[in-house]
Amino acid sequence: MQKTSYVAVITDQHIVEPDRTLYGLNTRVATQALVEQLRKESVPLEAIVSLGDLADTAINPNRRTAVATAESYTHARDIFSELRAPLLPLPGNHDEPTLMSSFFPPAWQHHEHGVHHSNLAGTTLIGIDLRTGPEATGFATKETIQTLDKVLAGSTKAIILSHYPLFDLDNQRIDEELSTINRTDVQEVLRNHTDKISACFHGHLHLWVSGYNDGIVTHGVPSSSFLFSLEPQSTSDIAVSDKPCGYILLGINEDGSTIVRPRFLSPAQRV
């Protein structure tokens, strides 16, 4: 029987300043429930990967420009301090990268040009930072793409993790507004190493999404605080859903194969 190592993949906590809410939701309570379930996991966790938007702000009403404050990160750090497994964070569009790294120093083993990576059971976990520019857009720099290619070339097996989706989905609004801007450049690198990539995971959409692109299995990880409702092919406004939230328990086998188990949390905590 193969030995399996386990990682929790979480995303989009959106913890805001104390005594404030987001979309009328209590993201603090939701994140506390997440942390409690992670502490009770039935298997020991080697690491917890956060795909971004760990914190946010309720002060700036413009959701396109809103980024987390020091108050938000202080609040988030207090909640996550109860976890025993190392946290491997990636910044999301609502994170402030410099602030985030000061409150949550990355536990990744290596970092270069926006590519974070750590080895686990012979598989390289590769986190792609798509928040490298001055604005909160999903863009991979030339240096990031070159480094990704180099890290994949030196890997035997790999799992790709990012905040923004890396492949086209079945929704025009997601592909045009909510995805990686230059994803075709990233996809070219991934295609060159398809035989090494066990799976790709992304956040940002607050949706359960699975697909098979260019020979690579992809998973959209749901937010642990609240979900969005956006039907296939729809271009209508995204609505906050009351469906159960969640995260993914990822098992990595010695041969590089993966086991993906969804973990469901309570519906969004309304106030």
List keywords for this structure.
Purple Acid Phosphatase, chain A, domain 2; 7-stranded mixed sheet; 271 residues; single chain; globular; alpha/beta
Which SSEs are present, and which pair or pack?
Elements: E1 4-10, H1 27-39, E2 45-50, H2 70-80, E3 87-89, H3 97-103, E4 110-112, E5 115-120, E6 123-128, H4 142-153, E7 157-162, H5 172-177, H6 183-192, E8 197-202, E9 209-213, E10 216-220, E11 227-229, E12 239-241, E13 244-253, E14 258-267
Helix pairs in contact: 1-2, 4-6
Largest sheet: 7 strands, mixed
Unreliable stretches, pLDDT < 50, 5 or more residues? none
What's the number of extended β-strand segments?
14
In spatial order, strands of the major sheet run 4-5-6-7-8-10-9
Oligomer: single chain
Q: Compute the gyration radius: what is it?
A: 17 Å
Percent of residues in beta strands: 25-35%
Q: What is the CATH level 1 assignment?
A: Alpha Beta
SS summary, helix count: 6
Q: Gap between N and C termini, in Å?
A: 47 Å
In which range does the helix fraction lie?
Answer: 10-25%
CATH architecture: 4-Layer Sandwich
Mean pLDDT: 93
Q: Remind me, CATH topology?
A: Purple Acid Phosphatase, chain A, domain 2
What's the CATH superfamily, by name? Metallo-dependent phosphatases
SSE class: alpha/beta
Give the ordered list of helices and strands: EHEHEHEEEHEHHEEEEEEE
Domain module count: 1
